[in-house]
Design a protein that fits this description.
By secondary structure, this protein is α/β, with parallel strands linked by helices. Among the domains are: 225 residues, no CATH class; 103 residues, no CATH class. It is 44% helix and 7% strand. α5 crosses α14, α8 runs antiparallel to α11 and α9 packs antiparallel against α10.
Length: 511
């Protein structure tokens, strides 16, 4: 007899003489149930860890010490080789004993408010003379003045000949960010920055504006965002051109919820793909699905290093043989971190080895090494660690179950092994793809507030604005100041010099 899942089941009415023959079936059922129970326990542990556990993935330093001690006992140390003699040492930062408050920014406007003593205290009690000012003490206090609206009146003055009443001329209006629209570039830049940099949905902005006595509906602001995105699209197209000329590119993607045109109904899943060049220029690309067509269309015939995760959608692009794949050690490390609950010894050993790789990267960053020096440092110190990791992977893959968490981590590392070693070939490469993950965090935080895109057109529009906002953040430039200036200039800026308006090349008028 079989149960509802198609597996054989022993009935209570089975004759006793037939039970011995059913023992193999019962044994197999027990093994299956034990395996299912173990898998469910691991899933429960994973969810509890990710929901209630600490988010930090820092390794206990005592674990590193333990494996170093074991390595010394067996003649295999995990201590990195000494740094090359040609690597300059970075001077130690001077430690200040000053415990006072940090000075307020010097660029902020100051409003002087004088406080004088009472008039009766200005007469000297000894001789009766009037006291004179001999100095002052300044105490600075940081205050906030709420943002405000201002109405700009563009007055077009008319002129005519009084003698013949002919030849009437009138001054021309300056270019407007939105043709026949009422918002100035500062207001449009504020809406874009609030929504895409500060994660304020338009309905919240609508309420904020109402507190200032200004009625602007969210549908009107939505139209402004769409027109501004169309206006700024040539700048993003130039950034994409620059990225495809870069020697290396980071890429990753994140899902977003999207409604169909017209609104209503259940949301489906769209994706925003981030592409980052060496000049800190970021381009987001929206796709309605998660297929390989997105990277294939964006990269085209790109030749250079591409650092990404192990998503199979990139395989067709790398199969063309023109770009070089660079894998991410952070993704690999996370696999072994998640396997701690099922195989603590192997996962801890691998985490210690990977920590050695990151220790080398930390020293290279602290010493401000040039790319060639970083490559030499990796070749001399990271290569031996990578050789030890490869030896461990080859031994462990024969000892663990492929479907277990540790087996999955080992399989992931082995499948990506060539790409995981590639960062040692060139000093411009990174050990991981965390840069792309940090850029995508802007979208991840935002979608918790605006929840979904109203249509695919909204996804393309958001990709344009996110590209500029994320680039400004990487270039450490104020996105509001950038957007306000570019919206003011773009209608009259020569197309041949559009690269001047990209965030990496943009110069503030105040500079």
């Amino acid at each position: 007899m079989t149960d509802g899942l198609g597996q054989r089941r022993i009935d209570a009415k089975t004759p006793l003489e037939q039970l011995p023959g059913e023992v193999p079936v019962l044994q197999q059922m027990v093994l299956t149930l034990l395996a299912d129970n173990d898998d469910l326990r691991r899933q429960l542990l994973w969810f509890k860890e990710h929901i209630f556990g600490r988010k930090s993935e820092k390794l206990d330093p005592n674990q590193a010490w333990l494996f170093e001690a074991l390595g010394q006992a067996t003649g295999q140390t995990n201590v990195p080789d000494p740094a090359p003699a040609n690597v300059p040492a970075k001077p130690k930062a001077t430690v200040s004993n000053h415990k006072g408050r940090k000075a307020l920014p010097a660029n902020l406007p100051r409003q002087r408010i004088e406080h004088h003593p009472d008039p009766e205290d200005l007469t000297c009690g000894q001789c009766g003379q009037t006291k004179q000012k001999i100095g002052e003490e300044v105490t600075e206090q940081l205050d906030y003045v709420p943002s405000s609206f201002v109405v700009l009146q563009h007055v077009r003055v008319k002129y005519a000949c009084k003698a013949c009443q002919e030849g009437v001329v009138i001054g021309e209006l300056p270019p407007m960010p939105i043709e026949k629209g009422r918002p100035g570039e500062g207001l449009v830049a504020h809406v874009l920055t609030s929504k895409y940099a500060d994660h304020q949905p338009l309905h919240r902005l609508e309420g904020i504006f109402q507190r200032h006595g200004v009625e602007i509906s969210r549908s009107t602001m939505c139209d402004w965002v769409g027109r501004a995105a169309d206006l700024l699209e040539p700048v993003v197209a130039e950034m994409k051109r620059q990225i495809l000329l870069s020697r290396k590119t980071h890429t990753d993607d994140t899902p977003v919820k999207v409604q169909d045109e017209g609104g209503g109904g259940p949301c489906r899943k769209g994706f925003l793909w981030a592409y980052i060049g060496m000049a800190n220029d970021v381009v987001f690309d929206y796709t309605a699905g998660h297929s390989r067509e997105g990277p294939l269309r964006f990269f085209g015939d790109y030749r250079g290093y591409v650092q990404a995760d192990a998503y199979r959608g990139y395989d067709a692009f790398f199969a063309k043989g023109k770009a070089v794949e660079v894998a991410c050690w952070a993704h690999t490390r996370r696999k072994f971190w998640d396997a701690r609950g099922s195989d603590s010894l192997r996962s801890a050993r691998m985490l210690v080895e990977i920590q050695g790789l990151y220790e080398i990267e930390r020293r290279a960053k602290e010493q401000d090494l040039l790319p060639d020096q970083i490559r030499d440092l990796r070749q001399s110190q990271a290569k031996p660690i990578l050789a030890r990791i490869e030896t461990l992977l080859k031994a462990w893959v024969l000892e663990v179950l492929p479907q277990s968490p540790i087996g999955d981590a080992i399989g992931y590392a082995k499948g990506q092994w060539a790409a995981l070693n590639r960062y040692t070939e060139d000093g411009i490469l990174s050990i991981d793809n965390n840069l792309a993950e940090r850029v995508l965090r802007t979208v991840a935080v935002g979608r918790n507030n605006w929840l979904f895109f109203g249509a695919d057109s909204g996804g393309h529009r958001a990709a344009t604005i996110y590209s500029l906002v994320a680039s400004c953040k990487l270039c450490k430039k104020d996105p509001f100041a950038y957007l306000r200036d570019v919206l003011k200039r773009i209608n009259t800026h020569p197309a041949s010099r559009i690269s001047e308006l990209t965030p990496p090349n943009w110069q503030s008028p105040a500079d």
